[in-house]
UniProtKB/TrEMBL annotation:
Keyword Acetylation: no
This protein's record includes keyword rRNA-binding: no
Keyword annotations from UniProtKB, A to Z: Signal
Signal sequence region: 1-20
Annotated region described as Disordered, given as residue ranges: 132-161
Species per Swiss-Prot/TrEMBL record: Luteimonas lutimaris
Stored SUPFAM superfamilies: LEA14-like (SSF117070)
Top-level taxonomic group: Bacteria
Biased composition range(s): Basic and acidic residues: 133-146
Listed name of the protein: LEA type 2 family protein
């Protein structure tokens, strides 16, 4: 009889501990997002179509808004990418927004040189990106600093990735 009571008490305690550990729910971790150029396409009029990859490192869905990123190609300023992402990105996921951009003359020359010589060109993004958890109305401005390189895509004239 004593063993049976001990076993019932043990099961009840284990069940309460299990329920208590589940009551907190998932951890809500909000991390700084990142942005990078996935593809840059030079149009016939000299303007650019820029596919900007937005990465959500948070453990919850985030809503992305205003984008303001200064672009540098090599050592040349190429203008500022501006726009409104207007998308939600799931936890620890990424998505792409396309922004139209009228580059500076130095930016046009740097891209033309890379395309003409069939070589990579380094780039840097620096600025801000607005983001907020989907369940909140107020957003926060995150500082973005990213450097990488773009390479001409074989068979696609005027396209770098």
């Amino acid at each position: 009889m004593h063993r049976q009571r001990f076993f019932v008490a043990f099961l009840a305690t284990a069940a309460m501990l299990l329920l208590a550990s589940c009551s907190n729910g998932p951890v809500r971790r909000i991390s700084e997002p990142s942005a990078s150029i996935q593809q840059l396409t030079v149009r016939a009029d000299g303007s650019w179509s820029v596919d900007l990859r937005l990465q959500n490192y948070s453990s919850i869905p985030m809503r992305f808004g205003a984008i303001s990123l200064a672009v540098t190609l090599g050592e040349q300023p190429a203008g500022t990418l501006t726009g409104n992402a207007g998308i939600s990105i799931g936890p620890e996921s990424a998505d792409v927004v396309t922004l139209e951009h009228a580059p500076t003359s130095a930016g046009r020359i740097a891209i033309a040189d890379a395309l003409g010589g069939n070589r990579a060109v380094g780039y840097a993004l620096q600025g801000t990106l607005q983001a907020a958890p989907e369940d909140r109305s107020s957003s926060r401005s995150y500082d973005i600093k990213h450097t990488s390189a773009l390479n001409p895509v074989p068979g696609l004239p005027g396209v770098l990735r």
